[in-house]
Amino acid sequence: FNLNEFAGTGNIFTLSTVYVPQILTWEGDISTDWNTPGNWNSNTIPTQLDDIDIPDVANDPVISVSGAECNAIDSLRAGATLTINPGADLTVFGDFTNNGEVIIASPSDSGAGGSFIDNGIINGNGTFRIDRYFTSGEYHYVSSPIEAGGNANSDLFTTGHPSGNFNTNFYGYDETYDLDGNASTAPSGVFDPDLLAPAWYN
Q: How many CA atoms lie within 13 A of 17 on its CB side?
């Protein structure tokens, strides 16, 4: 808030208060449950106003509900793991320094996986492991990141469609289709990892 004081000389003095996020430290004294207040040194669950620090302790934090949030993760330290279970989510409104491992889990069926949203900068030397469910014995197309402007130049995606629209293969998904059009054989040939590459899951 702002407090304005008018002095006799006509000068205006403005006093402002600025909220400084408190730093909550994960201790895991009770369990692995992110939403248990006693697992945090403040005995409170983080909100979007709080910065948090997650050291390497016996009980790593696990998020199993929707709506988990914090202002920033100052450090997920080396040896520490943060798990977001299927159907759960975490939103970080600021920066995230990851020197540990983040696991975004998938269910054992086609249900919703975990969700992680960061609105700041992600840095550090840690890893993100994103699990995804695949139907066994089917073909699945897996891609490395595609740069803005597009670096996927396979004819499957760039060939014009008679309708005048982009190739419908770009939008379609068919587990029985692979590059040679033969669903009974595994994909073959040499694939550039910078382009789209098929993977056969059995």
A: 5
Backbone torsion region of residue 189, taken as left when φ is above 0, otherwise alpha when ψ lies between -120 and 50, otherwise beta: left
188 to 144, 156, 198: CA distances (angstroms): 18, 16, 9
| Residues 50-56, mean pLDDT to the nearest whole number | 97
The b/e string for 93-117 (b: 16+ C-beta within 10 A; e otherwise) is bbbbbbbbbbbbbbeeeeeebbbbe
In sign, the C-alpha dihedral spanning 30, 35, 38, 41 is: positive
How far apart, in Å, are the Cα atoms of 51 and each of 20, 102, 173? 10, 17, 41
User: By the 8 A CB rule, do 176 and 198 touch?
Assistant: no
Distances (CA, A) of 113 to 5, 22, 30, 126: 54, 30, 26, 21
For the entire predicted model, the pTM comes to: 0.65
Residues 6+ apart with CB under 8 A from 148: none
Distance between CA atoms of 122 and 140, rounded to whole angstroms? 29
- What would the pLDDT profile of 124-137 be if each residue is shown by its tens digit? 999 999 888 777 77
Question: For the chain, how far is it from start to end, CA to CA, in angstroms?
Answer: 61
Cα–Cα nearest to 181, from 169, 193, 191: 169
